Amino acid sequence: MVRHLPPLSALRAFEAAARHGSFRQAALELAVTPAAVSHQIRGLEAHIGLALFERRTRQVALTDAGARLYPVLRDGFDAFAEVLERLTRRRSRALVTISATLAFTARWLVPRVTAFRALHPHIDLQFHATDDVVDLDSAGVDIAIRYGAGPYPGFSVSPLFADRFAPVFNPMLKIEAMADLVQRPLIHFQWRRRHPDNPTWSRWFAQAGLPEPTEPPQLRFSEESHAIQAAVAGQGVALVSLALVRDELSSGQLVHPFGPSIAGFRHHLLTREGESGAATMATAQWLLSEAQIAVPRA
Q1: SS3 sequence of 77-135
Q2: Of 95, 109, 10, whose CA–CA distance to 52 is shortest?
Q3: Which of 87, 134, 165, 270 is deepest in the core (most CB within 10 A)?
Q4: CB of 245 within 8 A of CB of 165?
Q5: Are 238 and 227 in contact (CB under 8 A)?
Q6: Is residue 272 pLDDT above 50, yes or no?
């Protein structure tokens, strides 16, 4: 549908003059002269072929036509102002996108969102959870949490913490000694990238000085979070990151009563060199401070 409307400037002039009951006050609001307001309104009257004001000495009054048009324009301009204010307010909130592995996002980042919002109520977080290495620019990511040995050229890099892995299990399994581990299913998860230093059951048994069982009962998962959930459910013993099961260890849902723990890689915080805004830097500093609190125990 084609709308045959008069100029917006004329409608604004009419609405302001009708609201104030004065061309002079309308001119002050619109930062123009009273003569310009009068000219705009006369053009509007000519466009619709109706008088909108009765001109009186030092004041103006709406005609019947003007009284019918005014509330429609007033409500319309009020609606415009409300929507624009809402859009501006939404745009003023900062959005920071964090990329991390599925397990790190679910087990370490998400539980801390409430604490972050209490400190930074005007920053919204968006999580990009994937076990694939993402390109920060193409994925629109502000902060990436990378787990590995590095290096990460082209980025500003801050170490979060070095991870350690140890056997954990539900205490209802009643495992009293390291040698009893093989009586329960050993829970595995798949490392996306093969590396000789990956924390595996083979490495753990070697460091513990125990022979690796040849055919132990096993439960295998493609993702670490699922391995942790299986351990919490009492399905077996999982060799997992102590940082990611910190809450379960604190609550007693999981225990790791004996060692050893074996070193994993380090989690690193990456941002673009020289391109991070205030919200990104505030979020990065908060993550670093949280990492100091949540260093996994050996």
Answers
A1: HHHHHHHHHHHHHHHHCEEEEEEECHHHHHHHHHHHHHHHHHHCCCEEEEEEECCCCCC
A2: 10
A3: 165
A4: no
A5: yes
A6: yes
Specify the long-range contacts of residues 63-69, CB closer than 8 Å, at least 24 apart.
Answer: 66/14, 66/18, 69/14
pLDDT of residue 170: 95
What single letter denotes the amino acid at residue 143? I
**195: pLDDT strictly greater than 90:** no
Which stretches within the chain are classed as H helix?
Answer: 8-20, 23-30, 34-48, 64-92, 102-104, 113-119, 136-139, 201-208, 224-232, 246-251, 278-293
Pairing status of strand 218-221 against strand 237-241: unpaired
DSSP line for 193-219: S--TTS--HHHHHHHHT-PPPSS--EE
pTM equals 0.62
| Mean pLDDT to the nearest integer, 20-48 | 91
- Mean pLDDT, all residues of the chain: 86
